[in-house]
Specification:
M23 family metallopeptidase, single chain, 8 helices, rod-shaped, alpha+beta
């Protein structure tokens, strides 16, 4: 058994007390730059939340103006009691504090339900941190636009309602009715039977320009008549226009001289082909001024009127055909009788 004096025991106790004690180790968590920035932004979010909450009750008018300039994303119908209730429940369940604050931030500042809002730079920053897409701008895209600066051109606004309305109007507006001339206008004819290839109906000639050959009075119309020379009942294939000898005979329309000739019945005559199956015939002329195959324009003088052939006086015998069918020329010309 070892024995020691009181002095030795006292010195030993003092030396033991002077020796360093083992300290309890503590763990220090160092946050990175991103985590610190995120935490700071979340704190700012909560502070703004509290400022708006208090300001709405104390200074409603001033806070309304501030909200329009600083917090355009704030919903007027936000249920703040529900937000705090959810935040408290999340903390009681030992959930991550950061995620709980983010959820609270989204509840207050998030643009949900497809609502389109105006986004400023602060609003886009909150969108990035709250993980939301605001006004159709993804969170990452919003952050990129903040970094790009205000000089970056904004995406054009498309008024889908106006476009839809314009489309609906275009579909429902009735189309303008384009009136077209009928190919044939039926004429009520009650006289004797017509010869073959003859019609009293008015056909559409499809000519761009027509001219009255001579302005005279009708001495003999188109149709059945008693021949002024023979005295027999014969069908008159054209219309006789009484004019003085030497009156200029003009081409009814542009075309080509089909043929010219001279006969005891028609005297000096010519025929013009206007295309599209339309031909005109001029007879009893005093002089012909064109040659076969010559091109003429509408209104060009092609002959001088006279009384050659089987005629009782100076006049122009004028015939008109469409696809070989004899038509009444009176439908297409003017006369001296008006």
């Amino acid at each position: 058994m070892e024995t020691m004096t009181y002095q030795e025991w006292s010195r030993k106790r003092q030396s033991r007390s002077a020796s360093p004690r083992k300290r309890k180790r503590t763990t220090v968590v160092t946050l990175g730059v991103r985590e610190r920035r995120r935490l700071l932004q979340l704190v700012v979010c909560v502070v703004l939340f509290l400022v708006v909450l208090v300001g709405k009750g104390v200074f409603p008018q001033r806070m309304a103006a501030v909200s329009q300039r600083i917090l355009p994303l704030l919903h007027g119908d936000t249920d703040f009691a529900a937000v705090f209730s959810d935040l408290g429940a999340s903390l009681e369940e030992s959930g991550p504090v950061g995620e709980s604050l983010v959820d609270a931030c989204v509840s207050v500042f998030g643009a949900g339900g497809g609502q389109v809002v105006t986004v400023d730079r602060s609003g886009m920053l909150l969108a990035r941190e709250c993980g939301r897409s605001i006004a159709g701008i993804p969170a990452e895209g919003a952050a990129a636009r903040i970094l790009a600066g205000p000089e970056e051109e904004e995406e054009p606004f498309v008024n889908t309602f106006a476009a839809h309305t314009a489309g609906a109007t275009a579909e429902t507006t009735p189309q303008a009715v384009v009136e077209t001339e009928p190919e044939v206008v039926k004429v009520d004819y009650t006289g004797p039977a017509l010869p073959a290839n003859t019609s009293m109906d008015q056909y559409n000639l499809h000519l761009s320009q027509t001219v009255t050959p001579v302005l005279g009075w009708v001495s003999s119309p188109f149709g059945w008549r008693e021949h002024p020379v023979d005295g027999e009942e014969k069908f008159h294939n054209g219309v006789d226009l009484a004019v003085n000898t030497g009156t200029h005979v003009q081409a009814f329309a542009a075309g080509t001289v089909d043929y010219i000739g001279d006969s005891p019945i028609y005297g000096l005559y010519l025929q013009l082909d206007h295309g599209g199956g339309v031909t005109t015939f001029y007879a009893h002329c005093d002089e012909l001024l064109v040659q076969q195959g010559q091109s003429v324009t509408a209104g060009e003088t092609v002959a001088l009127s006279g009384a050659t052939g089987n005629a009782t006086g100076p006049h122009l015998h004028f015939e008109l055909k469409k696809d070989g069918i004899r038509l009444n020329p009176i439908y297409y010309i003017e006369t001296a009788e008006g």
